[in-house]
Amino acid sequence: MATERSLAVHTFRLDREFVELHVLLKLLALAPSGGAAKAMIAAGLVSVDGAIETRKGRKLRENQVVRMGNEEVHVVAAQLE
After folding, report:
1. Hey, how many other C-beta atoms are within 10 angstroms of the C-beta on 57?
2. What is the DSSP track for the chain?
3. Are the CB atoms for 17 and 36 separated by under 8 Å?
4. In 3D, which of 65, 61, 35 has the Cα closest to residue 50?
5. Which of 2, 42, 48, 55 is the most buried (most CB within 10 A)?
6. Alpha-carbon distance 81 to 51, whole Å?
7. What are the Cα distances from residue 40, in Å, to 1, 22, 61?
8. pTM value > 0.85
9. Structural domains in the chain (count)
10. Is 71 domain-assigned?
11. Bridge pairing between strands 47-48 and 65-68
12. Domain containing 72 — which CATH number?
């Protein structure tokens, strides 16, 4: 029986209206560079809200979930101070 790798869950707090998908992957170091992030997206390795996403410039807003392999990112609104 194969063992599942555990899911690593991250939270990304928006400091603006949206963040582009490839930028999010680079900022969280889920991709080593912006070019690598774009290639992973183009290869169909990333999903947004459960659907494969191939648009590198996809705008992510609060309450969306990005998944790539065993990494999951929850996009949340910035905390108001």
Report:
1. 10
2. -PPPPPPEEEEEE-SSS-EEHHHHHHHTTSSSSHHHHHHHHHTT--EETTEE---TTPEE-TT-EEEETTEEEEEEPPPP-
3. no
4. 65
5. 48
6. 34
7. 29, 9, 20
8. yes
9. 1
10. yes
11. antiparallel
12. 3.10.290.10
Place of tokens 């996403």: 53
Residue type, 40: M
Residues 6+ apart with CB under 8 A from 76: 11, 12, 13, 14, 62, 63
- Residue 4: its pLDDT value, please? 56
| Biggest distance spanned by C-alpha atoms of the chain | 49
Tell me the average pLDDT across 22-39: 95
